[in-house]
Specification:
The complex is a heterodimer of chains A (about 290) and B (about 280).
Chain A (H helix, E strand, L loop, with lengths): L2 E10 L7 E11 L4 E6 L5 H8 L7 E6 L2 E2 L7 H7 E4 L12 H11 L4 H14 L4 H4 L9 H13 L5 E5 L7 H17 L3 E5 L3 H7 L2 E6 L2 E6 L1 H5 L2 H6 L6 H11 L11 H17 L1
Chain B lengths: L7 E13 L6 E13 L3 E5 L6 H7 L8 E6 L2 E2 L6 H7 E4 L12 H11 L4 H14 L15 H13 L5 E5 L7 H16 L3 E6 L2 H4 L4 E6 L2 E6 L1 H6 L1 H6 L6 H11 L11 H11 L1
Parallel strand pairs in B: 3-8, 3-9, 6-7, 7-8
Antiparallel strand pairs in B: 1-2, 1-4, 4-5, 9-10
Helix pairs in contact in B: 3-4, 3-5, 4-5, 5-6
Classes of the chains: A alpha/beta (about 290), B alpha/beta (about 280).
Chain lengths: ~290, ~280
């Protein structure tokens, strides 16, 4: 499974006074099994791009190939694409509607026309995969749950469709630190266990740096960088000029280096930072 | 008027709040015996997990919720005193998480004027207040725009202007940045500090430690109780306590702790990243 995006363009309100180019000649490839982070300022085209990947929007020109299907070809089956590519919108808990958690998660699989046993199995599996206790929660109303739990139920509804590509649009927005951590652990677990490709959109650079194999940077509708976290976050000055931050740890290491400490700056986790500081300071003791 | 507490804009004593579940009639205690005062003109951050009682506490401070037990005095008025309900609300304004839920009008300046209009103020005075309020959130040039054309951060600034136009002595911000992007978040934090510098008492309810770092005081709520109360330095230095409450520990504190465990002792009172850099340079 892989995704190839070739020279796509998208224009909102074409021909009207407020015509805006939302995507300008965007091309990239996502390989089998990759965890991809997308960053960019609000209005940079991130969400527009996501909506192209599962066929909710069609490009004005260009081609998107998901697996072996050209989803931009005339007559491409949208149903097949949406089974393959699951999109979790921002604040997905606003889309919960059923009386019980189990019914809500079952809504998608039911519409696939699966038989009851298969649906039940998928619902159980999806609820457990998002880190909730199936027996405990299945009969509860989704509206009686906490914010973090509601969001996980909403994500389970997409996972129950068993997509090969899972897209999460700012899945941690508005959550407290504990729930934030749980959602990220969940994403990591799903990626290891089930879904082939995960695409994560986030404003949180710490999360992007820690989780992604590949980072895409959007600015004014253009894809301006594409590379590993090390490659992308090495270009800190350019990112800052686009109004984007660096991971906190990376900022700290840059600051230390400026003050004359011999430490690497391509560091994204607290553990790595601690090790680097230990090496830098420990060596001084030996002398 | 309560004369003894003149320097205290808010006095909370033994506050208990129980929510009653509709179907079963069972009660759930959201705030459990909380006592503290807020100094006039101060900046206080209240931090806690979801369900810690922090929002219930906030809503008790402008009489949106009335105590089950205990008292809340706002600017000298008891929140249970219905006669002074509007005095309480005018003394302590409130800004909520979702800007879309707080905007009532289709033109920015009308929206900001909504509050003062309901107070029956002279239209010319309202005009001035609206302009001043919009300037204070740096949205003056957007006054004729439609709110739905603005970004989340801009809408939140309009919501704040609407409260500022009521000339409150105190504003309670209930997670005002939770739904905003990093730029919107920075803008709102700067405006809250500006308003505080102009003399408005600020109470900020938040999940984000970094937003609390520049407050005068931090109160940490956990399971309905105020479990920590001190300056940011005092609170952030108590790493073990923060960990036990599942709260984020500042990066500098965490690194200092990790290095200490491996035999590199930097100064104990490091809280900010600047202090860590300084301590590392000294160590070299």
């Amino acid at each position: 499974m892989s995704i190839h995006v070739k020279n796509i363009n998208h224009v909102y309100n074409e021909g009207l006074p407020d015509e805006t180019a939302a995507l300008v000649d965007v091309s990239f490839d996502i390989n089998d099994g990759e965890f991809v982070g997308i960053i960019g300022h609000t209005g940079s085209g991130k969400s527009t791009l996501l909506q192209h990947l599962n066929g909710l929007l069609k490009p004005k020109s260009g081609q998107i190939i998901v697996g072996d299907t050209d989803i931009t070809a005339p007559g491409a089956s949208m149903l097949a694409i949406r089974r393959k590519v699951g999109l979790v919108f921002q604040y997905p808990e606003y889309q919960l509607f059923e009386e019980t958690v189990a019914l809500d998660v079952a809504f998608g699989p039911k519409n696939l026309g699966l038989d009851k046993d298969e649906i039940d199995e998928r619902v159980r599996e999806a609820i457990e995969l998002v880190g909730l206790d199936y027996e405990d929660i299945k009969e509860k109303s989704p509206f009686d749950l906490s914010g973090g739990q509601k969001r996980r139920v909403a994500i389970a509804g997409v996972i129950a469709m068993r997509p090969e590509v899972l897209i999460l649009d700012e899945p941690t927005a508005g959550l407290d630190p504990q729930a934030h951590k749980e959602i990220l652990d969940m994403a990591r677990k799903i990626h290891e266990g089930e879904t082939n490709i995960i695409i994560l959109v986030s404003h949180n650079m710490n999360d992007i740096a820690e989780l992604s194999d590949k980072v895409l940077v959007m600015d004014e509708g253009k894809l301006v960088m594409c590379g590993t976290p090390k490659e992308v976050f090495a270009r800190g000055d350019e990112l800052e000029s686009m109004g984007l931050d660096l991971p906190d740890v990376t900022c700290l290491m840059r600051d230390l280096k400026e003050h004359g400490l011999d430490v690497p700056t391509d560091i994204f986790t607290e553990k790595e930072a601690e090790d680097a500081l230990y090496r830098a300071l420990g060596n001084r003791d030996d002398r | 008027m309560n004369i003894t507490g003149k320097n205290k804009i808010i006095q909370i004593k033994g506050l208990i709040f129980d929510y009653v579940q509709d179907e079963t009639g069972e009660t759930k205690r959201a705030v459990n015996d909380v006592t503290f005062d807020i100094e006039r003109g101060s900046f206080t951050a209240i931090i806690g997990q979801n369900g810690s009682g922090k929002s219930t506490l906030a809503k008790s401070m402008n009489a949106l919720l009335i105590p089950t037990e205990g008292t809340v005095i706002v600017n000298g008025y008891d929140t249970t005193d219905e006669e002074h309900l509007w005095d309480v609300r005018q003394s302590a304004g409130m800004v909520f998480q979702n800007p879309d839920n707080q905007i009532v009008s289709s033109i920015v300046e009308d929206d900001v004027a909504f509050g003062p209009e309901n107070l029956g103020i002279d239209p010319e005075v309202i005009r001035q207040r609206v302009d001043t309020a919009l300037e204070s959130v740096r949205m003056g040039k957007y006054k004729k725009k439609a709110p739905h054309m603005l970004s989340g951060g801009q809408k939140q600034r309009i919501a704040i202007a609407g409260v500022v136009a009521m000339k409150p002595q105190c504003i309670i911000f209930d997670e005002p940045t939770a739904m905003l992007d990093p730029k919107g978040r920075k803008d709102i934090m700067r405006i809250i500090h500006d308003l505080n510098a102009e003399g408005i008492t600020a109470i900020l309810i938040t999940h984000f430690m970094e937003e609390a770092a520049n407050a005068d005081r931090i109160i940490i709520m956990n399971k309905g109780k105020a479990v920590m109360d001190g300056t940011p330095r005092e609170v952030f230095m108590d790493r073990d306590r923060l960990v036990s409450l599942s709260l984020d520990v500042p990066l500098a504190v965490e690194l200092r702790h990790g290095l200490a465990a491996r035999g590199i002792d930097l100064s104990d009172d490091i809280v900010t990243e600047e202090e860590l850099v300084e301590a590392v340079c000294r160590y070299m």
